[in-house]
Design brief:
- The complex is a heterodimer.
- By secondary structure, chain A is of the alpha+beta class.
- Chain A has helices at 30-38, 88-99, 109-122, 128-134, 146-163, and strands at residues 8-15, 18-25, 56-59, 62-65, 78-80.
- A five-stranded mixed β-sheet of chain A has the order 2-1-5-3-4, with helices on one face.
- Chain A is elongated, with a radius of gyration of 16 Å.
- Chain B is of the alpha+beta class.
- In chain B, the strands form three sheets. Chain B has a five-stranded antiparallel β-sheet with strand order 4-5-8-6-7. In chain B, strands 1-3-2 form a three-stranded parallel β-sheet, covered by helices on one side. A three-stranded antiparallel β-sheet of chain B has the order 9-10-11, with helices on both faces.
- Chain B starts with 6 loop residues before the first strand and ends with a helix.
- The chains are: A alpha+beta, B alpha+beta.
Chain lengths: 164, 276
């Protein structure tokens, strides 16, 4: 809990398509605000210094570290979290992660999926090395990464079929 | 791990930003990809954050009159994808592909990296190898600083407390010049254990390292050897760099890595020449 005299600022933004106008504490990170104040707990807080990637959210369509952006900086922005990411690529990745057992505890999964979706949107046919590079900023402590890369490659392999 | 209290301002004009930066203990918030971790760890405790992310035009990339100008607020991802940069400063995409990770490159800025002057950072070395001029401003006026005079060592630059970096200006790659950036890190995107930024021209060379020495500078002895067409002497010259020493990575290993990377960089340029 922050003290009652904590300085705040007003912001207006959209989160998963819903417009929000509220006051936020100046020093609250975007991911903390989404979790504690908006109630969206799909983005996770791991390292809080930009190393682990568990806090990934989309801001104006780009994946960013939610722990390295302040909520007050989201004023005017369009934010999407894993809860609201309903684009076909994200849904296909969620399904592939399940089929390939690309998660165990699931803590890293929302960040992984948002990052993988950004990769496939830009490059629908990455090599395994390119997938690994794109996910190099996302830590997983369960899977050993191989099934995660398998899942992303499987979605990539299905992409031309889906577009046809 | 939450930051200490701070005031926050989001100026809409450069004049307003520069006036705010004249206040005591003000810090510039650009991409925040280094400042926010430092604040979360409470290594940094600025009294006032001046958020420059909404300043108009500060992220522009343009090429005119043989000069590539990259605005300080240009994101790493934008510079990496820019056709103008690929054409006029082909060293930069090579280096930026190795800067951190995709999500960090979406936010992190050129100006932020140069202003922080982390010894492991790729972009200060690139500015030296590309003979950049850095344009800075304060409420007192604007000045232009050659890259060689901008970097003052470990996390230290020529920027005064009230100054803001506006842009880097790079002479567009001249015909006959070739460029290579190579680094070694424990994981792709991690801090460089050693890196080389090399610009090799006809009877001339510019070479800077990252992750090796605490300060950012060119390597004049190695450059002279390269200009004289003696790559072996250039590689040997890197044996006397003032490498950082630590229990995780001894100075001798950093020096060795720098030498290996220079050898590989030269081989890469030679192979590209042979293929052309």
């Amino acid at each position: 809990m922050l003290p009652p005299d904590e300085p705040t600022a007003g912001i207006t933004c959209s989160v998963n398509g819903q417009d929000i106008r509220t006051q936020v504490p100046l020093r609250r990170s975007l991911v903390d605000w989404l979790r504690h104040d908006v109630g969206l707990t799909g983005s996770h807080v791991g390292c809080e210094h930009g190393v682990c990637g568990a806090c990934h959210v989309r801001v104006d369509g780009q994946v960013v570290r939610g722990c390295l952006m302040l909520a007050v900086q989201a004023d005017g922005a369009r934010i999407e979290t894993i809860e609201g990411a309903a684009d076909p690529l994200t849904l296909a990745l969620q399904d592939a992660f399940f089929r390939h057992a690309a998660l165990q505890c699931g803590f890293c999964t929302p960040g992984m999926i948002l990052q993988a979706a950004e990769l496939l949107a830009a490059n629908p046919t990455p090599s395994r090395a390119e997938v690994r590079e794109a996910l190099s900023g996302n830590y997983c402590r369960c899977t050993g990464y191989q099934p995660i890369v398998d899942a992303v490659m499987a979605v990539s392999a299905d992409m031309p079929a889906r577009q046809a | 791990m939450k930051p200490a209290r701070f005031d926050y301002a989001r100026p809409a004009t450069l004049a307003e930003a520069l006036a705010l930066l004249a206040q005591p203990e003000a810090a510039v918030l650009a991409g925040g990809q280094s400042l926010m971790p430092m604040m979360n760890l409470r290594v940094a405790r600025p009294a006032l954050l001046v958020d420059i992310n909404r300043l108009p035009g500060l992220g522009e990339i343009r090429l005119a009159g043989g000069v590539l100008r990259i605005g300080a607020l240009a994101r790493h991802a934008e510079v990496l994808a820019s056709p103008l940069v690929a054409q006029a400063a082909p060293l930069l995409p090579q280096a930026l592909a190795q800067v951190a990770h995709a999500a960090i490159r979406n936010r992190g800025t050129l100006g932020g990296s140069l202003s922080l002057a982390d010894p492991a950072a790729e972009l200060p070395a690139c500015m030296l190898a590309l003979d950049a001029t850095l344009v800075v401003a304060s409420a007192r006026g604007e000045r232009r600083i050659p890259a060689g005079a901008f970097f003052h060592g470990l996390y230290s630059t020529a920027l005064a407390a009230d100054e803001l970096l506006l842009a880097a200006e790079l002479p567009a790659a001249a015909p006959g010049w070739r460029f290579a950036f190579l680094e070694v890190a424990r994981r792709h995107g991690d801090f460089a254990m050693a890196g080389v930024a090399l610009a090799l021209g006809p009877n001339a060379a510019r070479l800077a390292l990252c992750g090796v020495e605490a300060g950012q500078r060119r390597q004049p002895a190695a450059e002279a050897a390269l200009a004289a067409g003696d790559p072996a002497a250039a590689i040997a010259a890197l044996a006397s760099t003032d490498a950082m020493d630590g229990p995780d990575l001894p100075a001798a290993q950093r020096r060795h890595l720098a030498q290996v990377l220079l050898r590989r960089a030269l081989a890469q340029l030679e192979a590209a020449d042979a293929a052309a």
